[in-house]
Write a structure and sequence with these properties.
The chain contains six helices and two strands. The mean pLDDT is 81. It has a single domain (3-166), classed as Arp2/3 complex 21 kDa subunit ARPC3 (Orthogonal Bundle). Strands 1-2 form a two-stranded antiparallel ribbon. The chain is an all-alpha fold. The longest helix has 29 residues, at 138-166.
């Protein structure tokens, strides 16, 4: 049997790759791992977007609920905040994926920019409601810009990983 990263390339392994990459990205996105205080890269949004555009059947909705719940518990956010953000990405991408699939990369990138701006606006509204005071939107704008600029690298890595795993021997 052919191995990838020291693991046999079985159908179960192939189908677990999106789950594993989403979990890794979720942990990297948590505040404790952010290189700058308060400003982090939304790699989880990038990974989720890429998997949903090309292989939506490999991303179970139950995983997004569990990841969102885990993120809310660890970060101290109101329960349901992260779940709502992840489900919003899921809904936006699944509903509009036919516009992005089979088009040049810049359209895919533009689609990610639209989705990321929408969910960041939603996150900012949640922060306003939770804190009950006006917070500066500069952090949300910075996070959105960083994520949009870094999307080509993360998207390319995810697609390379998928092609390495799913190539038939």
């Amino acid at each position: 049997m052919i191995e990838v990263f020291g693991l046999p390339r079985t159908p179960v392994f192939k189908n677990c790759v999106p789950v594993i990459t989403l979990i890794m990205a979720a942990f990297l996105d948590m505040e404790a791992f952010s290189p700058l205080i308060g400003i982090g890269l939304h790699s989880e949004h990038m990974v989720l977007y890429t998997w949903l555009i090309y292989y939506p059947s490999l991303v179970p909705l139950s995983l997004l609920v569990l990841l969102g719940l885990l993120q809310d518990c660890i970060s101290g956010l109101t329960l349901g905040t992260s779940i709502t953000i992840l489900i919003s990405i899921y809904g936006l991408v699944i509903y509009n994926r036919h516009h992005f699939n089979q088009h040049p990369f810049w359209i895919l990138w533009l689609g990610f920019a639209c989705v990321e701006m929408t969910v960041q606006l939603l996150a900012w509204i949640f922060a306003l409601i939770e804190l009950r005071e006006s917070t500066g939107g500069l952090i949300f704008i910075a996070q959105t810009c960083i994520s949009i600029v870094c999307y080509p690298l993360i998207g390319w890595l995810i697609l390379r990983l998928h092609s390495k795993i799913h190539v038939d021997p």
